[in-house]
């Protein structure tokens, strides 16, 4: 007797098998497990009792956690607004039909991605440093003394981090916007020009609305990534001065791995997830509103 | 009309000027890193007059390799990148092939599973995966960094798209009639056709593994197991022995491989990366 197996029917499952195994072990199960343990007490790493929302209540009573939320939101909003405006501007200028060299500019603007975030952190430390830094040398050429210790300043430290991220992110997302711009047909601009629309009107009435799908994609991706700000402030300031650069991911790291409180850490990670989703939804729906309002 | 041509030339110059200024801003950190890596260690705490070093010397590179574990870190990073790129490419292209070519009962369910899990960020998985790794004694090993990174949702979307757009169904049917099995279709027909997609995903996976900091920080413990970014951060964190020149030399070396990849394939990489973003 011959057993007939239709290889075409089982083949897709076999091709998916490695993915499913890894997905189950490293995503699905962890997502569920950390959700569950956020409602339990852990003693020496063993689950000891159901405590309901206690972990969540405790972290929300911790002023340091609230501070971390504010710092993270501040960073996410300020960084994304500056970075996205800059990226769109650069893309529009690069794409302008009257200039050449679009690819060369894009290549240069994209290059900061080659530096890993820890390297960005230490290089910018040496740019801002007093006495031996780039700013000192640059201003020194004009006879100006530079003595600002930016990473010791409550507002300066976060702005330094924002600047680093803008430096690294604007060119990266500029490449995305450029891809979105190339798909806009040239004829639209030509007929707008015949109707007498100036460059700014063309930008508002043609470029921005047609760039919207890409804009929404970039907002979501960049919001999620920037919520997880950790590397640069952790390396440079460890959250200081006076917790002014303490981020949610840092709080998560401290709770889970320095204080070894996994269930509270899991609660922090779920609060972060909710905030991220909320922030993405709010910013995307605002984009949608503004586009329908214009029409 | 007062020269529209002149107006055009002016705005052309203006746009170039803005873009060039921003390009210089973009390149300053690269320049500063390179210049400081070749400043003699002895000059370091004296101010640089102007933007060029007075003396040039490669001592920082020598002490980077002889006084720190940089060579070991470089080795670790390379091994981890090779393993995670290879594993990621294998898993993503197989899954992309399944989603792109076949019709099967659970297809939509699995695809929504992938899509849905994108909404939940990686941070949620950190604690359980760390516990798992320590339970099975894998902390401080290459596996602890390679395995959790192997599944990339972006990679599956990308491969699915490349396979759907560049692999004609008729070709598969013809090959089946010639007696090529399903595994043969994947290895001999699909993979060669989606080489550009594999290249884009390969660079993406390599870049992620090469620059990752948070995950290695949690998983690695011993000084000789560190990856390059983590190793550089520990050099920086040691205020008594901090030598900026050595640190910049290490930073430069860690950036060069990626720059080389970009010089060879940046256009294809950017096009592949951005093409799938909105459709996917």
Task: Describe it.
The complex is a heterodimer of chains A (295) and B (280). By secondary structure, chain A is mainly α. Helices cover 74% and strands 3% of the residues of chain A. A two-stranded antiparallel ribbon of chain A has the order 1-2. In chain B, 75% of the residues lie in helices and 0% in strands. The chains are: A mainly alpha (295), B mainly alpha (280). Chains A and B meet through helix 1, helix 3, helix 4, helix 5 and helix 6 of A and helix 1, helix 3, helix 4, helix 5 and helix 9 of B.
CATH architecture of chain A: Orthogonal Bundle
Q: Please list the strands of the largest sheet of chain A in the order they lie side by side.
A: 1-2
The top level CATH class name of chain A = Mainly Alpha
Strand content of chain B: under 5%
Query: What is the name of the CATH superfamily of chain B?
Result: MetI-like
Number of helices of chain A: 12
Major sheet of chain B: size, sense and barrel closure?
Answer: none
Radius of gyration of chain B: 24 Å
Structural class of chain B: mainly alpha
N-to-C terminal Cα separation of chain B, in Å?
A: 48 Å
Rough outline of chain A: globular
Radius of gyration of chain A equals: 24 Å
**If you average the pLDDT of chain A, what whole number results?**
88
Cα distance, first to last residue of chain A? 70 Å
Poorly predicted runs of chain B: none
Write a brief caption for the model.
The complex is a heterodimer of chains A (295) and B (280). The longest helix of chain A is centred in the first third of the chain and has 33 residues, at 63-95. Chain A has helices spanning 7-37, 54-60, 63-95, 102-110, 117-128, 134-141, 154-182, 186-194, 199-227, 231-236, 248-258, 262-294, and strands at residues 40-43, 46-50.
